[in-house]
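Tokens for chain A. Residues wanted.
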């Protein structure tokens, strides 16, 4: 059996440490939500001529790398990746049911898809871009592998996957099925008196069972006798 993580131990120090980690994670999530809203949902009228909707994965990423100024490329690509990394770190800490690489990435993609849709429909100077969702999901992937996975396993017990719950139980071996052999004097033969008492008790039980059977009428007993 493996060693239990420190934050999962049933001590007041472990409980205090878990509470501190959860409080810090909650504060970081609130700060991240405010920053995300300011970056993505604040109108930018000056950017209206420069924005356009992109529904084809890869088009905006190729345009980012094709521009001559590499600093603008790092800003666009790296900024979207960094924007998704807090999802990969904070989701496993605050929402234990979202633990797992696939769940974290899908949850990030769902949230950012909602944000991009709101940008394209409601915010001036913003447009829907599917490549932003892809880069944000890639950032959550990196954040989960770097830190989120370790934090989730330190705070909560390991999650049992569906294929582990459906696995067939292991059959016991012949050695496990065999009864334990008595050790030392416990394996010595029983006294003869004990055997007699056991035999008398068995005979008495047989007599009691026979006495409890209903007797057949005399005519039926006569019919059952063989004819000579």
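Reply:
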């Amino acid at each position: 059996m493996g060693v239990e993580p420190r934050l999962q131990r049933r001590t007041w120090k472990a409980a205090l440490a878990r509470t501190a980690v959860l409080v810090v994670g909650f504060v970081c999530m609130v700060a991240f939500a405010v920053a995300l809203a300011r970056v993505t949902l604040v109108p930018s009228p000056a950017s209206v001529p420069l924005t356009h909707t992109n529904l084809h994965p890869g088009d905006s990423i190729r345009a980012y790398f094709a521009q001559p100024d590499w600093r603008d490329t790092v800003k666009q690509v790296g900024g979207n990746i960094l924007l998704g990394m807090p999802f990969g770190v904070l989701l496993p800490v605050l929402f234990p049911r979202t633990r797992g690489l696939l769940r974290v990435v899908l949850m990030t993609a769902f949230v950012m898809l909602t944000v991009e849709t709101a940008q394209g429909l409601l915010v001036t100077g913003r447009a829907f871009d599917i490549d932003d969702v892809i880069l944000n999901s890639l950032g959550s992937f990196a954040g989960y592998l770097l830190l989120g996975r370790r934090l989730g396993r330190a705070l909560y017990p390991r999650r049992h996957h569906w294929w582990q719950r459906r696995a067939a139980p292991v059959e016991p071996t012949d050695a496990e099925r065999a009864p334990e052999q008595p050790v030392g004097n416990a394996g010595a033969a029983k006294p003869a008196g004990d055997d007699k008492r056991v035999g008398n008790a068995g005979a008495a039980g047989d007599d009691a069972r026979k006495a409890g059977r209903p007797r057949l009428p005399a005519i039926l007993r006569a019919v059952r006798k063989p004819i000579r």
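Residues 12-40 form the longest helix (29 residues). DSSP finds nine helices and no strands in the chain.
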